[in-house]
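Weekly puzzle thread! Below is a chain. First person to post its structure in token form gets bragging rights.
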Amino acid sequence: MRLRILTCLGLAITVTACVDQLDTPDGRFGSISVTAFDGGGIGSVLNLEAAFYGETDLEFAQPASDSCFTAQYFETNAINTNLRYLNVGEFVRVRTGTRVDSMFPISGLPVRVYQTARTRGIPYTPGDSVYVDVEGSGNAFPQASISVKTSEPFTNDAVGVPAEGVDLTLNWTPAPAPGSLMTYSLRYANAFSAGTKNEQLFCAFVDDGSATVPAAFLVGWRTALNNNREAMVVRLRTRQLELDSRTKLLIASTYSQPLSPLEP
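Winning reply:
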């Protein structure tokens, strides 16, 4: 199964250490992704992944509402083996509705990443909350519990390619409850690409159903090499806890369009 951990949050995980800092950071950071997938005939299903890091100054920075910026884009995901991954127990408990499931360490990886055992995903009702219980392991990472409301399904209008100097109007189904962001990742091959998508315009908006991207941000999207471009639209709900002076725990729920099938 393809790893999804931190994929949707890659633009929001930041390192706060100063360039001239010589001491090893002593922070700890846990990240749990709750991702909706197309379960076929049974509707949407969830897949959860989690990783926990030590000796780090990673933290989550919520994207600012109604903001856009350009960043690199990578079509494939890679595990960062330079980080110190922590063992927080033999399993991580997951609860949604009346169901109880567990995340276990993925075998065959050079690092410790936890993932739900159900290869076909966890059936759920979108909008319900997911509760995660971390057992903890000695002094490595504290015991903790955290929850998040799952992101609700939505539809959105096709993302167009406006003419030069014209703004881009975006429309989608607004959130039925407060607390979410709508994010757009407009991915494209720029002039320096070898043919693959290598850049993106990432925007985050108040989840009220409509937004406008100024024309000045759209040059790369409009002039994509060989018209190689695609849009990924994601509803995002997050919650972050400060467990102690050294430790933060993040949980993030996403629902995307297009909604991908869960790969075995």
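Puzzle host: Confirmed. Bonus trivia for everyone else. The radius of gyration is 19 Å.
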